[in-house]
Amino acid sequence: MKKLSLLALVLVLMSCVTASAAQYTITVTHIVDEAHSWHKACEFFKQEVEKRSDGKIAVTIYPNSQLGNEIDTIQSALTGGGVDVVITGESMMTYVPELGILGVPYLMTSDAHVEAVAGGEIGKEIENFMMMDGAGFRCLAYFVRGPRDVTSNKPIRTPDDIKGVIIRTPASTITVSTFEAFGAKPTPMAFSEVFTSLQSGTIQGQENPLAMIKSGNFYEVQKYLNKTEHLRTWLYFAMSEQSFQALPADLQKIVEEVGKEMQVYEHKLFLEDEAGLEEFLTSKGMTIVSDVDQAAFAKLADGAMQKLMAGEYKYLKPLYDKIKAAEPK
């Protein structure tokens, strides 16, 4: 398994020196910039944990993939490599294949559907049996994401428009298979590599929520925001169980309490940010393509998923059906 890079290790060691007065340290890392609601939520977590623990815990935050890409930092957290908390979701399918369900396009159809799943019994099942027992992460909070859209340098309204387009996707078999079904040429890569790859023409498009499109400055190298809204999901603010158990019981309680409060705080910021993101992106020169034939894309996505669930991904079918059934009427 990969460990942290030399630079990342130096950063972590420096943070340990800075926090030498504290009895315990918690290192948090994520892939977005300091203006994103995730980072602001992390700052809330840092402030409240340090205050309520009377300085016994020092929290250090590394934004912008400073400690490595998402997969590398997950591995670091699980192997005691210097990271304690990551923000992650379907990438965890490497450790628990069922978590790939978080990345199934068009499975959840609205924000209300996402909340019903993440905040209900299915969410508890994922947190307790998949993230905790299966992967070794304690979920301190979950962050709902805005729907993912495709950006490109030509308008995309139908599956015909996306045929042959080289699009960056996460390293998920489900996402890759779906975009292949659309007719695109999916190319998995780390988020930190997307901007330069778009700039150089290595890839021609990418797909992310509006907040990530802003955070990644993709408006500088992409002309069109195509409202495919192909994935609604959430991510976890997840602490390695090994790091959590290293804390005494009173400090564990503080960390968990602050995590739940942070979730509420982040969701408020998320809603405030989401309301102005389209206006921001258009002000930066992007053209919004809102007349996307989502039904046509959803039909192809469902076909790809049914094929996967009829084969090697058949274990996802029970969870898939539960999530479908949880859609608010």
What keyword list fits this structure?
11 strands, 329 residues, alpha/beta, 6-stranded mixed sheet, 18% strand
Structure, briefly:
With 329 residues, this protein is an alpha/beta fold. The chain has helices spanning 6-18, 37-52, 70-78, 111-118, 121-135, 159-162, 173-182, 194-200, 210-215, 241-245, 249-283, 294-309, 317-325; strands at residues 24-29, 57-62, 85-88, 137-144, 148-152, 166-169, 185-188, 205-209, 224-231, 234-240, 287-289.
Biggest sheet architecture? 6 strands, mixed
Assembly type: single chain
Listing every helix as H and every strand as E from the N terminus to the C terminus, the arrangement reads HEHEHEHHEEHEHEHEHEEHHEHH
- C-alpha Rg (nearest Å): 20 Å
User: Which range best describes the helical content: under 10%, 10-25%, 25-40%, 40-55%, 55-70% or over 70%?
Assistant: 40-55%
The number of helical segments is 13
Average pLDDT figure = 93
How much strand? 15-25%
List how many beta strands DSSP finds. Answer: 11
Distance between the termini: 45 Å
| Shape type | globular
Largest sheet: spatial strand order: 7-6-8-5-9-11
Low-confidence stretches: none
Q: Briefly note the structural class of the backbone.
A: alpha/beta
Helix-strand blueprint:
Blueprint: H1 6-18, E1 24-29, H2 37-52, E2 57-62, H3 70-78, E3 85-88, H4 111-118, H5 121-135, E4 137-144, E5 148-152, H6 159-162, E6 166-169, H7 173-182, E7 185-188, H8 194-200, E8 205-209, H9 210-215, E9 224-231, E10 234-240, H10 241-245, H11 249-283, E11 287-289, H12 294-309, H13 317-325
